[in-house]
Amino acid sequence: MHAAQFAVYFARLAPPRYTKFYLLNQDYNFGRAAAEGFKRKFDRVRAAGQQIIADEYHPLQKVQDFAPYVTKIMASGAEVVITGDWGQDLRLLLQQGAALGWKVKIGNFFLYDPVVLKAVGKPAIGHVTADAYLLTVDTPENRDFIRAWRAHYPDAPLSYRYPEGAYARAAYAILWLAEVIRTAGSVETEALIKAWEGARFTTAWGEVEMRACDHQMLTPGYVAEIMEPEKIPPSIRYWGSEFPAAGTPTPIAREDMVVPPRETGNTRCV
């Protein structure tokens, strides 16, 4: 679902029209799943002339010099690089790519992370991140959620000063569980399963649903470009001028993200 956001965004929604895509990921299960998820969705939504020109993997958290990878990307003529890299790998890739003068657009799953953005700085500007939830979703529900978060964590460190990404999803998971417990009138496993299957819940980023056959949360999502602080609308400029951050997000419909039941591998979904 996460990878599908980038496939839909870059194939259909992002200006200008990109044609050459390069996949570069860490060589472990998540990196390979990210690449496979993107390829599967991209094959369905790509326009004529759009193509994946490389699918490459590198050792997890062991590369100090990304110059060989950056050089290959630049020589390939790629316009977009989709990467599931995180932590040190993401920081070095962005910083060394900028130092070598690449002009590509990065699509990355974790670039909303304030710790990464503060460390990377300007080399993050212009690249793109995505998740089910982004801090800059501009809805009354999200504004209320952020105010409540800041009131509860007034002295929080940078990593969770605001409910970026996984923090928001984790918080709403607990709220949803509480509602399911109330509905079931029980904390017994089978009662909770019965109450949760097919249930819907309103979050700060939209309505989500628990698919009955595989217990997957179906959700809309958002994609946003990392921007200079002064270019982010004041109403969503939560980080002030500290470092670049996500700008106004582009919504991705739930229907465009969902993995069809028959493709989950779960026999209950056939």
Please tell me about this protein's structure.
- The protein is an alpha/beta fold and 270 residues long.
- It has two domains: 2-136 and 221-256, 3-Layer(aba) Sandwich (Rossmann fold), CATH 3.40.50; 140-219 and 259-269, Response regulator (Rossmann fold, 3-Layer(aba) Sandwich), CATH 3.40.50.2300.
- Helix content is 38%, strand content 19%.
- It is built from nine helices and eleven strands.
- The strands form two sheets. Strands 1, 2, 3, 4, 5, 9, 10 and 11 form an eight-stranded mixed sheet that branches. Strands 6-7-8 form a three-stranded antiparallel sheet, with no helix packed on it.
- The radius of gyration is 19 Å and the shape is globular.
**Basic shape:** globular
Q: Counting H and I runs of at least 4 residues, what is the number of helices?
A: 9
Could you name the CATH homologous superfamily of the largest domain?
A: Response regulator
CATH topology title of the largest domain: Rossmann fold
**Main beta sheet:** 8 strands, mixed
Please outline what is shown here.
The chain has 270 residues and is α/β, with parallel strands linked by helices. Helices cover 38% and strands 19% of the residues.
Q: Which key features would you list for this structure?
A:
270 residues; alpha/beta; Rossmann fold; 8-stranded mixed beta sheet; 3-stranded antiparallel beta sheet; 11 strands; 38% helix
Write the layout of secondary structure elements.
Elements: H1 2-13, E1 20-26, H2 29-45, E2 51-58, H3 67-76, E3 80-83, H4 87-99, E4 105-108, H5 114-120, E5 128-131, H6 140-152, H7 166-184, H8 189-196, E6 200-203, E7 206-210, E8 217-218, E9 221-227, E10 245-246, E11 250-252, H9 254-257
Parallel strand pairs: 1-2, 1-3, 3-4, 4-5
Antiparallel strand pairs: 5-9, 6-7, 7-8, 9-10, 9-11
Helix pairs in contact: 1-2, 4-5, 7-8
